[in-house]
Amino acid sequence: MSARNRRSKSVSFHSSNLGKKDLQLFGDSVRGQVTLLEGDIFRIFLWKNEEDEQKKSVVLKQGGLGTFDLRRENDSLFLSGNSERSLRIDLKPFSWDWDGVRGGIKLFQDERTGQGLVMVLEEGSGRRYYGLGERVGRLNKKGRIWTNWNTDPKRGVRLNTDPLYQSHPFLIGVEEKRAFGLYLDESWETRFDLAASSGGRSKIATCGPTFDLYLIPGPSIKEVVRRFTTLSGKAPLPPLWAFGYHQCRWGYKSEKFVGRVVQQFRKYQIPLESIWLDIDYMRGYRVFSFDERKFPDPKRMIKRMRDQNIRTVVIVDPGVKFDKRWPVFKEGLEKEAFLKKMNGEIYVGKVWPGNTVFPDFSRDDVRKWWGEKHRFYLKNGVAGIWNDMNEPTSFSGPENSVPFDTLHSSGTTHAKLHNLYGYYMNQACFEALKRARPRTRPFILTRSGFSGVQKFAWVWTGDNRSDWKHLSMSIPMLLNLGLSGVPFVGADIGGFGGDCDGELFARWMWLGAFYPFMRNHSSTGTIRQEPWCFGRKILRIARDAIRFRYRLLPYLYTVAEEACRTGIPVLRPLCLEYPDDEKCAEIEDEFLLGNDLLVAPALKKNQKWRRVYLPEGQWEDFWSGSRYLGQKSIRVDTPLESIPLFLRAGAAVPLTEASLNTKRAVWKPLIWRVSLAERVTGRVYEDEGEGFKKGRVRKIRGSFRKGTLKLTQGKSGTTGKVFVLIGSGKRYPLGGRSLVLRIREKKI
Ligand code: GLC
After folding, report:
1. Is the distance from the beta carbon of residue 152 to the nearest atom of ligand 1 less than 6 Å?
2. Which of 360, 532, 570, 730 has its CA 20 to 30 Å from the CA of residue 235?
């Protein structure tokens, strides 16, 4: 996006009118409306033409509009709802001041679309920005221009690549310990210049004809995220098996090949939840087909794996092979389901199948049609769907995608709908899986998406590389996705492009054991990276990491269930839980899983030790049981065999024993790993791990005073064994519901 000329024009309104629940603004070239939504979110919506008022939006229907007080002083209007932030609007020229966050909006002409609106935000030097979804770079997004235009970068993800596969035009600003959120609900290409071109101001621009801005109050980051996910939606609770270990590679080229991979997992007793089939399974890369030579009996193959508790996930690309004899192509043609060029011909691009056409997922009937096609996979026993190339990629198009001026059936140009393409494809898939299997929780992974994509799919961060920098970059990338409302995320473990080595692999497997989504994936043409590919020592380490993941499942699943209810992510930057601690503000080489576990991985080659900052409170080394006072940075060793992991004092973290695969989310045994403190609390969420029956929460409470630990567990619904694990090793059975123990106090 670029301005044709640098001149931009201020927006002015000559009058305003207070409607029942909105404030209407009237100008010569622009109209505006201000409303107050649930959660004290102000929406400022500007548009130029009546028809643009009906824009595409992913914002959930709001229960009703709130009322606000309005006071006028000449050309200034003062609006206040219930939140601590009130809004002042100046009409001539239009600008707003939301309790110190100040912006103005101007018109400009984008080179390609001939239209555009830009918001200029005044910057204080101390402000930090988080969010913006999937991005390279640091946790704090200030100081760079970020573009929202879903892109499959030709050379994969590099350390500097922008834009990437997803668009999340959502920012969290933090200034003087107070947080606020800005969400620009525009699907057109948008650009966030965060004090990059000029230190004194940020510019947020869209090349579309409307400017739809939501001002989301805090005052904490958590509160901003919670309120934002009332707009963009929350993730549904996934099946338990989604949290297991997934094995994937581009190049599992036949049934026999897959069989050998599975055999190795069994031989080495490595837990395995699912095998993923990449494009190798298709006949000539036709979606909704199996290559009968290489996969002669997919149903049998999938069943054989399922009998060993291993599920199968298949890749689905949106592009349909241009093949007049291929029923999917023919049906789509009859429905006029494919994107067209300006001259009315079908747009034909290039993807894996060669000449390829693209369904218009913005249409309800096309989504339904596409969705129904998934019955083909379900009939064969497939458990989950992996939606890829849905930016959409078109190798022959500009920026590796479908051209800007391609037409959707509604007559709308692709420029407006491009960023929503993957979002709609996931919606199609999600709704279809629910229709076809109403008692099963859908599991979908996607590469492309937009704010709100979490309602339908999990997200992985695309084509990273087997490289130390990518290992560390995955942390801020996943953290910012989480802050943007997407809780279930992961990066390709071991790296996708390039060759991995044993040391990097071991480190990545341990870090990956804490990703919400744990999948090992690599590209064809790179060296193999299954757990046994780097020798016996690395195999042992990788297996330990996966086994640890399975021990952690009760906790992970409990945090996941919380994320689905509250929108607060599973992986959390320290600043989310410790907003008052300045030191936590930009930490991006350690993170929290939920709020009880702090993970501080080794991220460099040959790393023997590292420093770990521990926030307020006391912390316990998970492995040794050593105690530390917080608000200090400590030095820890980083042996290849494990990962620095700390437990918050006072936490009781639910664990279980390792197993080769998941079963029900009813934990047998349930092991409370307790970190002693005057007050101890913990909770665990349990259900069938599948289906929609209501789950239940078990709580544990207690105290540790003068060497005596007293614990009581709430009524348990199950008969399984329960243990309490203290320090680095000792386990005590929790007979009945209470436990009293004398423990020698450790020195800090
Ligand atoms: C894309 C995906 C990658 C996949 C490959 C082949 O590059 O990002 O994960 O393996 O296509 O389907």
Report:
1. no
2. 360
- Cβ atoms 70, 78 nearer than 8 A: yes
Q: Is 487 in the pocket of ligand 1 (CB under 6 A)?
A: no
Q: What residue ranges of the chain are covered by domains with CATH 2.60.40.1180? A: 571-648
Q: Which residue matches tokens 């622009």?
A: 30
pLDDT, position 6: 59
User: Which residue, 170, 146, 160, 148, is CA-closest to 480?
Assistant: 170
pLDDT in tens, 68-121: 999 999 999 999 988 888 999 999 999 999 999 999 999 999 998 999 999 999
Q: What's the mean pLDDT in 216-230?
A: 97
Q: Is the CB of 497 under 6 A from ligand 1?
A: no
Q: 583 CA distance to ligand 1 centroid (A)?
A: 38
Cα–Cα distance, 424 to 369 (Å, whole number)? 13
Nearest to 173 by CA among 212, 136, 211, 220: 220
Q: What is the mean pLDDT of residues 664-678?
A: 95
- Give the list of residues 6+ apart from residue 530 with CB closer than 8 angstroms, or none: 247, 249, 261, 264, 520
**Is any ligand 1 atom within 6 A of the Cβ of residue 279?**
yes
| Domain 8-232: assigned CATH number | 2.60.40.1760
Q: Whose CA is closest to 496, among 476, 472, 526, 468?
A: 526
* Ligand 1 atom having least distance to the Cα of 315: 12
Rounded to the nearest angstrom, the distance between the alpha carbon of 473 and the centre of ligand 1 is 20
Q: What digits encode the pLDDT tens for the residues 284-305?
A: 999 999 999 999 999 999 999 9
| Ligand 1 atom closest to Cα of residue 278 | 12
Stretch(es) of the chain classified as CATH 2.60.40.1760 = 8-232
**What is the share, in percent, of the chain residues with pLDDT greater than 70?**
98
User: What three-state secondary structure class fits 64?
Assistant: coil
Q: What is the mean pLDDT of the chain?
A: 95
Instruction: Please tell me the class of the 571-648 domain.
Output: mainly beta
Distance 698 CA to ligand 1 centre (A): 41
Distances (CA, A) of 555 to 239, 341, 452, 561, 703: 15, 51, 25, 10, 21
Catalytic residue numbers read 388, 391, 463
For residue 571, give the 3-state DSSP assignment.
Answer: strand
- Output the six-digit token pair for 305: 């794996």
CA 584 vs CA 176, 490, 578, 590, 631: distances in Å:
14, 23, 7, 10, 9
Residue 27, amino acid: G
Report the nearest atom of ligand 1 relative to the CA of 389.
1
Tens of pLDDT along 39-51?
A: 899 999 999 988 7
Can you tell me the distance from the alpha carbon of 168 to that of 237, in angstroms, rounded to the nearest whole number? 22
Sign of CA dihedral 364, 367, 373, 378: negative
Residues 704 and 651 sit within 8 Å (Cβ to Cβ): no
Atom nearest to 317 CA in ligand 1? 12
Is ligand 1 within 6 A of the CB of residue 620?
A: no
> Could you tell me the pTM of the whole model?
0.98
Q: Is the CB of 447 under 6 A from ligand 1?
A: yes
